[in-house]
Amino acid sequence: MVEKLALVGIGKIARDQHLPAIAANPDWELAATVSRNASVEGIENFTTIEAMLAARPDISTVSLAIPPQPRFAYAQAALAAGKNVMLEKPPGQSLAEVHALEELAREKGVSIYATWHSREADCVPDSKAWLADKTIKRLAITWKEDVRRWHPGQDWVFEPGGLGVFDPGINALSIMTEILPWPVHVASAVLEFPENRDTPIAADIVFTNPDGAEMTATFDWRQEGPQTWDIDIETDGGRLKLSSGGATLEIDGQTVKKGSDHEYANLYKRMASLIQSGKSDVDLSPMVHVSDAFTLGKRKTVDAFHF
Ligand code: NAP
């Protein structure tokens, strides 16, 4: 059955990824959009979710591609109206918000999917399989990108609830929590806040883990020139390097796989199968690490940041 979908927030990620992924998947029909200032040619647009929910009972599913701060109210309205809901990452601005949404979805008997697009990167399953029988000695995440390039003018990332550099950093944490054979937790963190902003522009994290391995993550949003989205892991059975955000896999210095981009295609495929089987998928482990880094992090004030 073709599911009718409303896409909310026609902005950067909606145009870059959601619209092409929906158009390419025969299980989905883009039936409406909700956006205050934008629309998609030929598709009915509403400026509020309430208006869409009242006018379009035929729509089964709402996909939220808005920033995390307004997301809860939109998701709550959609779930309360009996719609399945798909959440962009991070799934909310706090853990409690997402617990509440999960509970509401359960009460209403609908599916909720907290998506982690980076987990769909091509080499993530290969890395998980390769690591399964190894002892980890060292893990280093290096996620350094240029916020001006990827979030031009998006002040919400520096406002409370916008997560700052954890907006991309949580993608690395979503991969880490997927590929490691056991759970880890944050031991300490240093967060660098620009003097004029409410969220960090850089972060260094240390993790505690069962193998006693040295495990760190370095996130920085001030990286100009080449961008780095790498996870390096040394084990008793060799060295793994996941680069390009999970798209390229090296083992012992040899490239063994260079994948292509199916991340959002996979997310919409999975959402369709969750609805068909009446299930939900809400894994908050990447968000727990972010929350713990804010709780445990030592605050350092750095130079003001202006777009
Ligand atoms: P964006 O372009 O700044 O925002 C998307 C749209 O949301 C805006 O065009 C705006 O549309 C609507 N919006 C903004 N603030 C709102 C508010 N306060 N209330 C209601 N609607 C609001 O952001 P984005 O880059 O697409 O990111 C959206 C989400 O996708 C974030 O959670 C982000 O982490 C995730 N994501 C982004 C990227 C990326 O490359 N940018 C990649 C992967 C995931 P209207 O003004 O028309 O309502």
From TrEMBL:
Read off the SUPFAM superfamilies from this record: NAD(P)-binding Rossmann-fold domains (SSF51735)
Sequence ranges assigned to domain Gfo/Idh/MocA-like oxidoreductase N-terminal in this UniProt record: 5-112
Q: Name the UniProt key words of this record, in alphabetical order.
A: Oxidoreductase
Among Pfam families, the record links this protein to:
GFO_IDH_MocA (PF01408)
Would the keyword Oxidoreductase turn up in this protein's UniProt record?
Answer: yes
This entry's Enzyme Commission designation comes to 1.1.1.48
Q: What class of enzyme is it?
A: oxidoreductase
Superkingdom of this entry's organism? Bacteria
State any single GO MF term. Answer: galactose 1-dehydrogenase activity
Mind telling me what this protein is named? Answer: Putative dehydrogenase
**Annotated source species:** Hoeflea phototrophica (strain DSM 17068 / NCIMB 14078 / DFL-43)
